[in-house]
Amino acid sequence: MPVGLFRVCLLVITALVNHPLFFPKENGTIPENTEEIIQKMKEREESLRLEQLRLEQEIANQEATQKALEKAAVVVEESKEEKVRWDMWTALSMVIFLLIELWRQDFQEGNWQDIGGEEDDMAVLGKAFKGVAFPDKAVLASFYEKRILGTTADMARMREMVEGFADDLLEALRSVCNRDADMEVEDCVGVGSMYENWRVRKPFVCDLIVPFAPPEPYCFRCQTWCSGDSFPPDEQGYGTIKVCRADEDVTGCICDKTKLGEDMLCLLHSQVSSTRPSSEMEDLLCFKNTQYLDADQVMKWFQIAVTKAWNRISHKYEFDLSFSLLDSPGALKIKFKSGKSIAFNLTPVVQYENSDVYFISHFPRSSLAADIPSSTHWFLTFAVYERRFIQLVSKTLPANACHVSCLQILSFLHGKQCSLTGPSGLTNYHLKTVLLHLLLARPSQDWAPEKLEARLQDMLKFLEKCLHEKKLYHFFIGNGKVPAELGFPIVFQRAEPLNLFRPFVLRRDIYRKMVDTFHEMLRNMSALINEYTVHIPLAHTNGIRKE
Fold first, then answer.
1. Signal sequence span per UniProt (predicted)?
2. CA Rg, the chain, in Å?
3. Domain span including residue 509
């Protein structure tokens, strides 16, 4: 009973508590708040949906960008691999091509200095001579007598006059120079065609070289391409001249070849003694901030010194002296009041050790040093040995030998052809080199005067062979057959042969012009010779041939 009563009371209380009339204000706003919440929830849902769409779009864009970058990276990697493969194939092809070219040239050339049996070579050469009327002995003899000898008779008198004036000028130059600071100038030496007696074309120009040395306590130390140092192929034939103190170690200390570090000093050379002020080296005509002699600075110094020397002695002479060429500072011209003039070249040179090989600053009227790598690179000239070799060989040849006559005729024909078709890469130095090779290869009796025609043909055919192979080697460099009587430095005899035609291998336009000029000269040879030859009666010609 009490339990049942308790249950009834609990039920009534619960009903009263949950009846809405007991809480009218609180329960009256419930429907309104529910709609508001639902509306906000929908708005929130819509904003979340839009945000989700935006994020999905950004993710899609990022994925597309990533795929594009990956694709571009793949393309770049493939292109790099392709380029590497292409570079490898290109390098391999170039190596194969060079090996084939070297083999072909060696196969064609054989031993370049073994030309003692060139009769066989001459038999297969001479393609350019087909259809060319070569002058006979009588015509060549008449041409040489009338055209060559008639124009070279006064060369000796001109050489004597120029040498006397040059000696006086150099003596005045020594007097105006500071013996303690300026370069010391030695006596001049005559070289070239005027002193080898084969120059034929006017105006006659004497070439004089003037050795000079630095003031004490300095000295020149020369380095050549064949002295063991690494020189590029395009610098063969060149060398550098270092200005050093005479008391410096010739072999050089190890401190000059290694980096000792900031906290280490050489016990033999202090930092003060190893570095000299740049102004001191520039006063010694060195290239800026180096110890290497600068050819441009030397030529400027020499031109100023010559001008001062002439101002000192000009009152003694009844002519004027001037520089004739702007690009050749040593090209001088003597002008007489009568209007006549005499040209000569005075070029400073540096002696290589104790030999007659010289480093020359530039070549007047020549393209031999047209592409000098820099002003600190000096070309080596063997002109003194060339003159000495011709004199030595001339003593063993028959009387009135034709070797000089061949060179004079060929030089004359080449000069005339260049005046018609313009200059080419072929120079008189190339022609003289051909003669030097043949002088060494042929026996003395082959240069008798009656064999002028045959030897001239030999020179032309030898030159044709060299043009065909693009190889004309320097006579002295790498030539072990140079007579020992010359006292030629052995270091140059043991060097690799120097090809004088090497610059034309890559310059096809100049090479083509050179070959065309040679062929034109052959075709015009008879016409050029007949133009300067007095008519020879047929009976006289036949008489000469019978003899």
1. 1-20
2. 45
3. 122-247+282-534
How far apart (Å, rounded) are the C-alpha atoms in residues 334 and 337? 10
Does 521 map to a domain? yes
Q: At which residue do the structure tokens 């400027």 appear?
A: 300
- Phi, psi for residue 363 in degrees, rounded to 5: -105, 115
**406 domain residue, yes or no:** yes
Question: Cβ contacts of residue 125 below 8 Å, gap of 6+?
Answer: 461, 464, 465, 468
Q: Are 533 and 518 in contact (CB under 8 A)?
A: no
Q: Quote the distance between the C-alpha of residue 412 and its chain's center.
A: 29
DSSP 373-433: S-TT-EEEE-HHHHHHHHHHHHTTSPTT-SHHHHHHHHHHHHHHHHHHH---S--HHHHHH
Q: Within 10 Å of residue 490's Cβ, how many Cβ atoms?
A: 11
Burial of 238 (0-12, 13-18, 19+ CB in 10 A): buried
- Cα–Cα dist 133/328, whole Å: 40
DSSP code string of 316-380: G-SEEEEE--SS-TTEEEEEETTS-EEEEEEEEEEE-TTSS-EEES--TT-STTTT-S-TT-EEE
- What is the amino acid identity at position 311? N
The β-bridge relationship of strands 341-351 and 184-185 is: unpaired
Judge contact between 347 and 362, C-beta under 8 A: yes
pTM: 0.71
Digit-coded pLDDT (tens) for 135-185: 888 888 888 888 888 776 678 889 999 999 999 999 999 999 877 778 899
**What would the DSSP string read from start to end of 5-44?**
HHHHHHHHHHHHHT-GGG-HHHHHTHHHHHHHHHHHHHHH
Average pLDDT over residues 23-31: 47
Altogether, the residues listed in the chain come to a count of 547
Other Cβ atoms within 10 Å of 330 Cβ, number: 23
For residue 87, the number of C-alpha atoms closer than 13 Å in the C-beta half-sphere is 6
Q: Is residue 243 part of a domain?
A: yes
In 3D space, the residue among 302, 75, 102 whose CA is nearest the CA of residue 210 turns out to be: 302
DSSP 183: P
Q: Are 379 and 363 in contact (CB under 8 A)?
A: yes
Residue 109 lies in a domain: no
Identity of residue 266: C
Please tell me the predicted confidence (pLDDT) of residue 139: 84
**Residue 314, token pair as written in the block:** 């000009």
Q: Identify which of 209, 206, 172 has the alpha carbon closest to the alpha carbon of residue 314.
A: 172
Q: Which of 6, 8, 294, 333 is nearest to 162 (CA)?
A: 333
Tell me the sheet residues that pair with 350.
359
How far apart (Å, rounded) are the C-alpha atoms in residues 411 and 405?
A: 10
Total of domains in the chain: 1
* CATH for 472: 3.30.460.90
